[in-house]
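Lab notes, practical 5.
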Amino acid sequence: MAKARNKGVAALIPFPELLKSANGVLSQYLTYRREAVKSKLELAQIRAEVKMYVAQVVATRKIVMEYLKRSYDERERIFDGLFKRLDAAMADGRVEEVGATLSAMVSLAQKSPLEVLVDRNAFRSLLADKDYEWRL
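Output from the prediction step:
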């Protein structure tokens, strides 16, 4: 009986058709494997790019934070000097110097150390410029 069953299956699917079907399955599997490898490579590339962008953000953050720290330190020193000058001018009764000092204080207070960061493209070009001297 086993022989009859085998003849029946062979009769249902001729060998060339069976070979063609197996070849098609193998071809589809190979296509799948190529796409899977390609997807893994693309994913690895995306992860590497993300890692690079995160590193750029971290580096930029450090630069910005250091810039802010130093610019506010500088502003503090300038204001300290202006207040000393104002105190001395007021103590000596030098009205014109009092006015000039107050004017300088107001002018400095109106300027933000963040102005350089407002224009993102300008800030990026400054970061990229190796010859730019950061005056902190």
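Observations recorded by the TA: Residues 23 and 103 are 87 Å apart (CA to CA). The mean pLDDT is 82.
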